[in-house]
Amino acid sequence: MFVIFGTRGLKHTVSDSPVLTNSCPNCNNGNLVNKLYRRWFTLFFIPVIPLDTVDRFYECDSCKSAYNENIKTILQKSQDEINENQKQAKLIFAKALVASMTHMSIIDGDFAAEEEREIMDAIEGFPEMKEDLMAVHHHVKEHANKDNQVFNYLNDARNALSSEALINILAQAAVVLLADGAIEKEEENLMKEYLIACGLPKEMYQNLIDRLTQKDISELKEGQLN
């Protein structure tokens, strides 16, 4: 008899935390619900024992945007300050996304046309910052992770964004893993390094691949701001 065990991350609602009513900066009228990611020990792929908490964050019950817990402080600021915070968070998200996708695409030494298209599609999703993102793309394409630049972008994202937003970055970056029809070992190892850099357990690698097979990538772009 084979016994299959491991760990996986699951999202839970924090029942004793107050809901922030009509407070979502993205859709303006959604309620922000406190959530946490917890790692579970699994037996035959069934979660049986809760382990450590990976992160706590707020998620909008309407548009599904996710925010780290400092959103409570941000919401006390003026509307102009809130808008500026959202703008900066979106830029941090987009730079980390493009940098990781580009780095992933060149790690195996074969920059496929399919991978280039995925990156260009991602950049087109942020038309107001296209120039900045193209600069990030070209720099990483030419210099790879020189001076740790890709991981610096991910570290900025880790400090500014929620774990849900980080997972969305990596899930979209994982599209590159599948763009040419095969996942190379170098790509898999790099994705696990990205997870660790984002403060997430490397065991969540399979969760990312599962998410790609279960959802259209456009859905993953929801909730990316904080």
UniProtKB/TrEMBL annotation:
It comes from the Bacteria. This is TerB family tellurite resistance protein. It holds the Pfam family Zn_ribbon_15. It comes from Aquimarina mytili. Residues 95-203 form the Co-chaperone DjlA N-terminal domain. Transmembrane segments: none annotated. Residues 24-83 form the Zinc-ribbon domain.
